[in-house]
Write a structure and sequence with these properties.
Layout: E1 25-31, H1 37-44, E2 50-53, E3 60-68, E4 71-77, H2 89-100, E5 124-130, H3 138-143, E6 151-156, H4 158-163, E7 166-168, H5 170-177, E8 181-183, H6 192-205, H7 216-229, H8 232-238, H9 242-250, H10 254-263, H11 265-281, H12 286-305, E9 306-308, H13 316-324, H14 329-355, H15 357-364, H16 372-408, H17 410-417, H18 419-424, H19 432-438, H20 442-448, H21 455-465, H22 471-484, H23 486-511, H24 531-542, H25 544-566, H26 569-583, H27 591-596, H28 601-612, H29 623-635, H30 640-650, H31 652-683
Parallel strand pairs: 1-4, 1-5, 5-6, 6-8
Antiparallel strand pairs: 2-3, 3-4, 7-9
Helix pairs in contact: 7-9, 7-11, 10-11, 14-16, 15-16, 16-22, 16-24, 16-25, 16-28, 19-20, 20-21, 20-30, 21-23, 22-23, 22-29, 25-28, 29-31, 30-31
Length: 684
Amino acid sequence: MNTHDSDISHPVTLHNHVFRGANRLRVALVGQHNSGKSTIFHAVASTSYRTGKLAGTHKPYAECPVQIGVDEIHLVDLPDLQSLRNLSGDDLEALKYLLWGDARPLVSRHERSEPPVPFSRPDVLVYVIDASALQQSLELALELPELGLPVVVALNMMDEAHRKGVEIDIEGLAEKLGVPVIPTVALKGHGLTELFNKVLNCARKRSCPLPQSPNPHIMEWASKMQHNVDLPEIQNAFAMPKNQLTMHLLEADSYFMHELESHFPDALAKVKALQNEALEELPRALSEEVEADRHHRAACLFESVAKLMHKPKVSWEERLDMLFLHPSWGLVGSLTVFAAVLFMVFEVSTTLDAMSAARLADMVSSWQPDTAAGVVGRAVIDGLIGLVGIVVPYMLPLLLMLVALEESGIMHRIAFVVDRFFHAIGLHGKVAVPFLLGLGCNVPGIAATKGLTSGRDRVVSSLLITFVPCSARSAIVLALGAKYLGVMGVFLLFALSLLVIAILGRLLSHRYPEISPGIIQEIPSYAWPKWRPLLHSTWNRSSDILTIVTPLLVGGSVILALLQYFGADAWINTALAPITYWMLGLPVVLGVPILFGVLRKELSLVMIYQALGTFEVGLAMDWIQITTFLVFLLFYIPCISTFAVMLKVIGRKEALFSIALSIGVALITAVVVRLSLSGIENLL
């Protein structure tokens, strides 16, 4: 094989070893949160790529082929990875992929779950680092060589580091880490060609970096530990570099300790004996010593390759931060952003609704079938028109705006500003991001609470997120409220939602009185949303409309139509009349639509049209009834998918409590609003 370095200045360089077809190279992007690895992936990915989740987890990955000259690679974007040590749950599956790919070593074959991914272990790792936050990324950089794979470091966001006055010695960092370091600015495409050419060169040379040696006093204990586990049967069973297994055992990694206990109890006894011996000789536990040593080496490395210089002139990004992160004006800026979002969605939605659902409704309004087959056909059409009326004018514009705020970095700044609000209701400001995600859909919002370190915060925030108006509920509020209550009515409904969340937060803080630890929040750099990732993220959050909601909408519409046709809906409506008619003052026929709203909130609006026999709700309900219905819909039982994710995140007991809480809050709030508005109307 030709081993000389390729000249990257030529468009195509031929090698004796070409990566194509079955010989295609597999490259994995790894990195910590907000390092920009997904930005690199999207910058080079094809228009169609495969996505999935690590087996048994909610951690997503993406994979696609990439052409680099005459070579081809399989590029894998892995979930965020903070460290290789003491991982558990979803994070552990990412480490298993890096160690074993789609294979199962002997120590792992007893596990019931499938391998993390259905493809092989990577041939090369690209570790993406945020150059503006270099120090906290260096510990993982010291760990990755233990995997025995070629590593290339992508020092990303170099422009942000420059703006912060951070100057990095690229060559010095590469020399000390023993791996190539390529500066990149992924958002602008800078350095990506050099990065992937370096990946190919490392693969051709088959050069793997030597693991970074700890300090001598740690090396002494590492040698003793390796002696205890340096047995052929242990090495074959774990199928991983012996140096890495040694370091995991030095730090008493729970997964590897458990597997060693299950398969080699005699070896575990020696490992524990060594740990006890170290505890007597060292000032603290051996695992803490190893962790402290790695932290010290990373800090020394940072000090040797990075320095703070005089900052350049104030940029527009810094000026925006002066607004969004200001103690007083930050809240004003955040509220202005959301007011602008609602106003833009309101203006756009009115136009889109008139161009789409309204015209379709007019086209079919004259068809009034009197046979069962005709009723089913009309119900299917009504369900599809209802789907168009929710998704096109309301849901998609709202989701697009929320994703744009996320991609731009504004969402994280809003989360930072509202930290004080969450402290007031007994939560840490870090829960703001799940809450803001809940504006798009409660499901990813609740799932995001799994990243919270406090179990108490996880439960309370999950319970409260169910009262955050997701895009489905917001779409109904915009569809009915904007048409019959006006802009101020819509604003007051959302303000009521915020007030209810604040009150419930205070009440729940008494039910869960534990004190949560403080957390320092990280704020990413500003970034202009790019259309491909923006549209992709929007599609990911709304794609279940086609796969899940469409059958529910159409099926629910058909069921309601048949119930009406055969007169069975009257029984259900009569049974629910104490709630719908007596308590809420709504038309009796709305019992079935409200009941079916448990499946998906979108069903309620479509089935209201079906139950009332018209798309003009204002002809059958007055403004107080519409307001009461919307208030009840905002707060009552979460949809089935939300309940399902709550079962996984907070357990059955708390999930069932959430249902009882939702019903109680929805009824009480709706009744109070109805009586208040009726009293005001009588006075006027």
